[in-house]
Structure formats: C-alpha cells, structure tokens
Design a protein that fits this description.
The chain is mainly alpha-helical. It has a domain of about 120 residues: Orthogonal Bundle (Arc Repressor Mutant, subunit A), CATH 1.10.10.10. The longest helix is centred in the first third of the chain and has 29 residues. It starts with a helix and ends with a helix.
Length: about 180
C-alpha cells in the first residue's frame, strides 16, 4: 500500500467513525469506494510522484543544456504548432494551463528574451497575438532534439509499446475532463 493510499484510507476511516452516516453520505461513500480502489489510489500516488520528478528533471536538464526553462519551451512549442505561429493570450493560456497573470509574466520574459513578440490583432484593438520570432524559432529548433532525448530517457523508456496506448488513453480522458470541468 502506498503512503498516499495509507493516508487516504486512515483519514477516511477516522472521518467515517467520527460522524453519523446519512443516506446520501452512505451512497457517496459507497460510490467513492467503488471508484477509488486501492489500485487506483496507488496509480494516483505513482502519477503524482512521476509527474513532479519528471517536471523537475526535464526542466533542469533542458535549462542546463540550452538555457531554456521547460515552461518557455512549452510556450514556444505551442506557438510553433499554431497557425501562422501565433496565438491570442487566451489561447496560449489554455494550451499551457496557465492563469492569465502567470501567462502575462511568462510572455513578458519571453518578449524580453526576444523569443516572442506581441502583435496587434487585425480588427480587434483590445487583444493581441503572441507570435514566435525568428530567434524563438531558432531556440525552439535547438531545444527540440535535446528535450525529446530527455523525454525518451526519462519517460518513454519506462513504457512498453503495448502499454503506451492505454497510458495515453487514460491521460487524455483525464485531461479532457479536467479542462471541461475547469472551463479551460
């Protein structure tokens, strides 16, 4: 049993014994037990640990290799894939799962570094496009093979080809559901 599973099970048991059960609470609790099984709790704990560790090591190694933080690389990648290599602030915030204030700070730093530029949107003087500059394109091209090598070594090496579809399917379902629920 993982540490996360033990904590959740202990908390659930102590809460259950410290309050009377209403019919609705019993129904929700039963549904929770069916959905949040020990294997699913263990998967959750493993996901959290892997995500944090991967984000830390991928960011550290990319920044060390080419001076580009992982969040900057992700922004450049989103712009690189976008039509005409530009997105509105809202589109970029959604793609990166950033708050608007967090994105503003990120874009400010990318503009200062000369990797992106703010452009007026034709016909809409209130909003801007964030566009990849030539320097941003070059930095992205430099970082891409480095980043893919790190992803291969720290992520892909631990997933068998037969497991990849199931992992992708589960993560896409989660991402889509969370985006719908959070309005992203």
């Amino acid at each position: 049993m993982s540490v996360v599973s033990q904590r959740v099970a202990t908390r659930s048991a102590s809460k259950a014994s410290s309050r009377p059960r209403a019919t609705k609470d019993a129904h929700v609790s039963e549904l929770g037990r069916k959905l949040l099984t020990l294997p699913r709790l263990n998967a959750w704990g493993a996901f959290l640990t892997a995500h944090k560790a991967l984000e830390t090591i991928l960011s550290r190694e990319l920044e060390s290799a080419c001076g580009l933080p992982l969040t900057w690389f992700d922004a450049l990648a989103q712009l690189r894939m976008a039509p005409a290599q530009r997105l509105t602030m809202g589109q970029l915030a959604t793609a990166l799962l950033f708050s608007k204030s967090g994105l503003t700070r990120l874009v400010d730093r990318l503009v200062e570094a000369g990797l992106v530029q703010r452009l007026a949107r034709p016909g809409d003087r209130r909003s801007l496009h964030i566009a990849l500059t030539d320097a941003g394109e070059e930095k992205y091209r430099q970082a891409l093979p480095i980043h893919l090598g790190h992803v291969k070594r720290h992520f892909a090496a631990y997933i068998e080809d037969g497991e990849a579809t199931a992992v992708e399917s589960a993560l896409v379902r989660m991402a889509n559901a969370v985006r719908r629920e959070s309005g992203l």
